[in-house]
Design goal:
4 helices, about 25% strand, binds tetrahydrodeoxyuridine, Cytidine Deaminase, domain 2, about 140 residues, alpha+beta
Length: about 140
């Protein structure tokens, strides 16, 4: 089964009663495992979580750390791009050359790397002068 098919399968479980917009995400890790996530909305709207965040949480809970490939799918007019927050979350666990395949349920596909999705990402390298004694 392809990573897009995995994402499409988990999308069926999305809890999106407020937006009506179901999203599925699948991550393949360098260890070769696949972890899945879907969006989980909440009546307190800001408490909802994206599909990508769910897949990352599943990856970490399973003991994997590095992303090799990402797929995300929704029913929309053009391939669904990860939101800004999810781009930063993906960059935490993926190198810049990792490919993110964005998809629609109708069959459209768009591939971009993590670095293309988040140019100029903030990373720990900027923190070398940080005050380690700060509370
Ligand atoms: N959403 C995702 O899960 N991933 C994306 O890449 C884009 C947006 C969700 C969040 C919310 O539940 C719904 O889609 C509408 O924003």
């Amino acid at each position: 089964m392809s990573l897009i098919q995995d994402a499409a399968r988990v999308r069926e479980n999305a809890h999106a009663p407020y937006s009506g917009f179901k999203v599925g995400a699948a991550i393949r890790t360098v260890e070769g495992h696949v972890h899945l996530g879907c969006n989980v909305e909440n009546v307190a709207y800001p408490e909802g979580t994206c599909a990508e965040a769910g897949a990352i949480a599943a990856m970490i809970a399973a003991g994997d750390k590095r992303i090799a490939e990402v797929a995300v799918i929704a029913d929309c007019p053009a391939p669904v791009p990860p939101c800004g927050g999810c781009r930063q979350k993906l960059a935490e666990f993926a190198s810049g050359d990792v490919v993110v395949t964005m998809a629609t349920t109708a069959g459209a596909r768009l591939q971009m790397t993590v670095a293309e999705l988040l140019p100029g990402a903030f990373d720990a390298g900027y923190m070398v002068n940080a005050d380690k004694d700060a509370p």
